[in-house]
Every structure is written in C-alpha cells, then in structure tokens.
Protein 1
Amino acid sequence: MTPEEQITKMKKAITQAIKVMGDRFGSTETDVAKAIDELKASMQTAPVAVPQPSQSQAAVAAGA
C-alpha cells in the first residue's frame, strides 16, 4: 500500500469514527465497534525500520 493510499484509508476511517461517535443516539454499539476496528486496521502498516544509535553514540549516552 502506498503512503497516499494509507493516508486516504486513515482519513476515511477517522471521518467515519467521528460521525459514529458524535451521533450518540443514532449509532449502535456495533457501529462504534466497527468504526474502532476500521481505525485500527487503517493504522496498521508495514513495520518501519527505526534507526538504532551506533555503538559509539550508545557508549557516550551511557557515560553521561
């Protein structure tokens, strides 16, 4: 999934969740659960590699 597709999916899920949760009397518990599930699914992406500090940077940080 491209970043643009991911953003579009997240925007749609957020909009739906706001609509469902803002309509307390017109939304069922099922609607809310579905909106939450869609939000969770929209936020799941391929793992992003987080840069790890090099050995020398870790040693400096540990010594400080």
Protein 2
Amino acid sequence: MNKYFLKVVIAGILFVGNVGFAQTTADLQRKVTRVAQTQQSEVKITLNWFREVEMRDVMLRPSRGFVHKSKIVLDKKTKQTQCKGVLVQTGQVVMPKVCMKQNWQLNQFTLIFANGKKGIGTSKSFRMKGDVVYIEVSPELTKGLKGLPMEATPKGQSLEEHFGHGVLDTIASFFHSKGVVCSKRYYRPGKVHYGDSTLQVGDGILYQGKLVALVKKDVKRIHEVSEKPLAILR
C-alpha cells in the first residue's frame, strides 16, 4: 500500500512539474513575442527645423525711417532633433508631443521603420491630442509590420484610475528594466552615478499587451513610481 501511494505521489509531482514547465515555457514564449512585436513597431524619427535671423535680432537700436529694415532676413539657421515613435494597429505612428516643442519652425520630419522603409512628413501630416502626436502614414511604408494594439485613457483620468493599481507595478518594472533608479533616498547632485540607463523619449509602455503611454522625459532616477514622465494616450 505504501509503495502504491508513493507511486501516486511521484506521478503527481511529475504531473505538476510538467504543468509548471509548460506554463513557464508559454510565459517565456509570450514575452519573446511581445519583445519582437515591440521592436518591429519602433520608429526612428528625425525632425528638421529652421529659424530665420532677421536684422532686428542683431541690431542694437531700432531702425529709423519708413523702411522696416529690422524685418530683413539676414540668415537662415537649421538644426535636427531625434525622437522615437511607435507604430500602432491603426496604422498611425505615435510619439510624445514634447518632441515637437521647439522655438524653431518645423520644416519636415523623416520616419524610418523597422522594415527599412522611409517616409517624409510635414506639419500637415500629424495631429496632436493631449501629450501625444498622431502621425498619419501610408500603408505602403508599413508592409510586413504589425503595429501594437493600444488603449486610450479617458481625459481627466490617470492610468491608475483607469486600469487599476496593477499598472503601477508594470511602470515600475519598465523603469527598472531600463536601468532607472527608484529610491526615496536623497543624493547630493553630482555625488552619485545612476548607471547606464537605456530609457529614451518615445519608449512605449505596454499594459496587458496594449500600448497605454509613451516616455516624455528622460529620467535617471525617480523617488517613487509616477506617471509624470509619461505621455498618456487619450
């Protein structure tokens, strides 16, 4: 009888072990799939800006007479900035609004997708909603790519209010994976090295497989889990 029960126990252990192994394998496969989808949805964005330098910008005293010489353009300066976007299932590319905040005029921007294709956009190619920019792109540019599913948070609500407390754990895990230090201890400026954070403006935050927010501020350290560095999809 003892031998019989021993066999049953061993069989039960093996069964539980196989089930646990299967669950672990399934979880691992889901994580690998999620990482692959996230990588193929990433979009590199280069923004080209210009600013005209007028005579009034360099004059010490205002011009006299009827001719407003101060409005004469003396030079035209240009510069480039980089940002990161995410391709979503609607076929649009989303990026944080902060990438568009410049005291310069936008000339055009270039999007480079994971499939190697490149698209050019202008100020008429996008719209802003809250802290997020929605860029319309041609389906030809995203052939072979699968955008991430997204879920918007109602205006006036935080991520926690809309999704529940579990979303804060996801945000904390995301920051940790990017090397961001989360500590309530006070550190004197310049006296501590926070490590090599890989966080980038434009990185996407996924909750339960759906894109819910984008990073809008490159932080090296946070005192507590907060939504402040994030641009929430509305």
Protein 3
Amino acid sequence: MEKKRTEEDWRNLHERVACAILNGRCANEYFSNMSMESLIDDAIWGADDFVEKLREREEKQ
C-alpha cells in the first residue's frame, strides 16, 4: 500500500511546482513583457491547480 502524502509533502510539492512554472516562464521570451507580479500570480495559480487535481486523482485511487 502506498504512503499517503502529508500536508508538508503537499506544501513542498506546491512550492516546487510554482518554482518550475516561474523557471519556465522566465526562460521564455514570450513572457518577457509580463510583470514579475503577474508571473508570480501565474505560478501560484498553476501550482494551486496542479496540486488540487493531483489530490483529487489520488483520493480516487
């Protein structure tokens, strides 16, 4: 049986996903006209969405 993720695991995953999104956005010239605030909001929103959907998927299993 698989180990369930703790709240700390979910927070760490959220942080890593947000950082990955920021890295990708900052490395892409297409996003160079976005403000840092917009980039951060985008990364947080994306991490929220990712973690929410992953939690739902794991609960179904």
